[in-house]
């Protein structure tokens, strides 16, 4: 793992402020230079897929992982510089106005006729002003509004960015080196937006389905919950009260995603009025949401019996449908993808999904080592009994007996390590991590160097270190 950590620490920052990179799209008459502070989803110029964009969601994940490199000294001064540039860029794109685009007509004149159908209309662009810019899934890498048709709005990005930014703020050692006024303005804008829209439907993080989604709503809940405490610490009672009022309501909605018959959180939320054709399904997005929200314990944390049941259902699914999970080495856990029936590229395993499954186990291990109460229910009793190699009746009543906490923590770390080994089995010697690895043979698929893949490894690795410290290993 240490060698892959070094690779990720080298490759991921290349996606931030990559001002030396220029993307040319001749069919659209575009020449795009990455702006300072932007975060490229993929820091190469590949055409398939074209990921030379700044996604709000992906950039938040990457910036959260950058904090790990700053805190452990791997990328101290440079990391702080990149973070400051990201804050400045993020504030700039939050103020974009689609009604003011003096170069728009010339841009469209340069587009080849057969490709004009892929562009947003002037009317669609003009709708983007005020806080509507925060619902944009992605922006041009140069900091301009994306002219292409895409699935919008997507409302998870500002919540994820607020969560990441507040984690920087809470680090007292880093705070003297942070642009606090700009950082506060960004957090307030993202939290105000989240508080305004969390009840509204949007497209999911896979940019495919319209509705209300567990992943989106759990990171919104976490941002509002943490945001209330953050605003209160600054003496902003009005914002603190608003966020604190919304968070419990959001938590009540999250409970509705659990289907007892499936023993899992399914998504999207069943609502015939929003999208009659969208049947709730088992989707790894739920686990990504739990990991990114990073609740220490309680509902919608890795210690939540229903969350563990959801992950075990996903393990059963991907063990069944992925050839790479069959007859795998005994030391390897499950390689994870998105959902059954996925047709994006090979519909294969994703590095960031697999690393997130490992991080789930590491976060749960920390909870087991540090928390007084680990809930027991019909949703997790059998799963915990398997992890502990115990008769489920001996574990306790409504909570796990304290005598089992340390053993459980060690078992969870071992389970996380096995999942990491599943990804390491197919990761190339170069350390480059693609978006996917084939479900057939593990070959790299889609973007060959995805910033989110590196970020997911770094946060999983950091969670492992935390679990080892909490467990005394």
Please outline the helices and strands:
Elements: H1 2-11, E1 22-25, E2 30-33, E3 53-55, H2 56-71, H3 76-93, H4 104-109, H5 122-126, E4 138-140, H6 157-170, H7 180-197, E5 202-203, E6 210-211, H8 214-233, H9 237-255, E7 258-259, E8 264-265, H10 285-293, H11 305-321, E9 349-350, H12 351-370, H13 381-388, H14 405-424, E10 436-437, E11 444-445, H15 451-471
Antiparallel strand pairs: 1-2, 3-4, 5-6, 7-8, 9-10, 10-11
Give your account of this protein's structure.
This protein has 473 residues and is mainly alpha-helical. It has a domain of 192 residues: Glycosyltransferase, CATH 1.50.10. 47% of the residues lie in helices and 6% in strands. The protein has 15 helices and 11 strands. Strands 9-10-11 form a 3-stranded antiparallel beta sheet. Strands 1-2 form a two-stranded antiparallel sheet. α7 crosses α8, α12 packs parallel to α15 and α14 runs antiparallel to α15. The longest helix has 21 residues. The chain starts with a helix and ends with a helix. 49% of the residues are buried.
What is the CATH first-level class name of the domain at 282-473?
A: Mainly Alpha
State the major sheet: 3 strands, antiparallel
CATH topology of the domain at 282-473: Glycosyltransferase
Order of helices and strands: HEEEHHHHEHHEEHHEEHHEHHHEEH
How are the strands of the largest sheet arranged?
Answer: 9-10-11
* Fraction in beta strands: 5-15%
CATH architecture of the domain at 282-473: Alpha/alpha barrel
